[in-house]
Amino acid sequence: MAETTAFEWDEDKNKLNQKKHNISFEEAQYAFSDSKRIIAKDLEPSESEERYYCFGKIGENILTVRFTYRNNKIRIIGAGYWRKGKQIYEEENKI
């Protein structure tokens, strides 16, 4: 990931995510810095835009970040430590 990658998010959604999943979008950005991160297209249809998942390691944990690309920025939609994301990361990286 280039150092100039810009992120954005809705602050109300960030606060809700922190309450629900105990992870801020500020922290979630670091999943994209993992050199072994996995990017996958979200297969759930969205009427307005294509969405993706980033599965990346932060410390000892694998974080799943749901995002889209908007105005040349990565717009974070949600993030959490989910078993399925960990499983995908480990399978793809043969851990």
Describe this structure in words.
The protein is of the alpha+beta class and 95 residues long. It has one domain. It contains three helices and five strands, in the order E-H-H-E-E-E-E-H. The chain has a five-stranded mixed β-sheet with strand order 1-5-4-3-2. Strand 4 and strand 5 form a beta hairpin. The longest helix is centred in the first third of the chain and has 11 residues. The protein is globular, with a radius of gyration of 13 Å. The two termini are 22 Å apart.
How large is the count of helical segments?
3
Mean pLDDT equals: 92
H/E series, N to C? EHHEEEEH
C-alpha geometry: globular
Structural class: alpha+beta
State the helical fraction: 25-40%
Estimate the strand proportion.
Answer: 25-35%
Unreliable runs: none
How many structural domains can be distinguished in the coordinates?
1
Query: In angstroms, what is the radius of gyration?
Result: 13 Å
Biggest sheet statistics: 5 strands, mixed
CA distance, first residue to last residue: 22 Å
Count of DSSP E strands?
5
Spatial order of the strands forming the largest sheet: 1-5-4-3-2
Topology:
Elements: E1 7-8, H1 11-21, H2 25-28, E2 38-41, E3 52-58, E4 61-70, E5 73-80, H3 83-92
Parallel strand pairs: 1-5
Antiparallel strand pairs: 2-3, 3-4, 4-5
List descriptors.
single chain, 95 residues, alpha+beta, 3 helices
State the gist of this model.
It is built from 3 helices and 5 strands, in the order E-H-H-E-E-E-E-H. With 95 residues, the chain is α+β, with helices and mostly antiparallel strands.
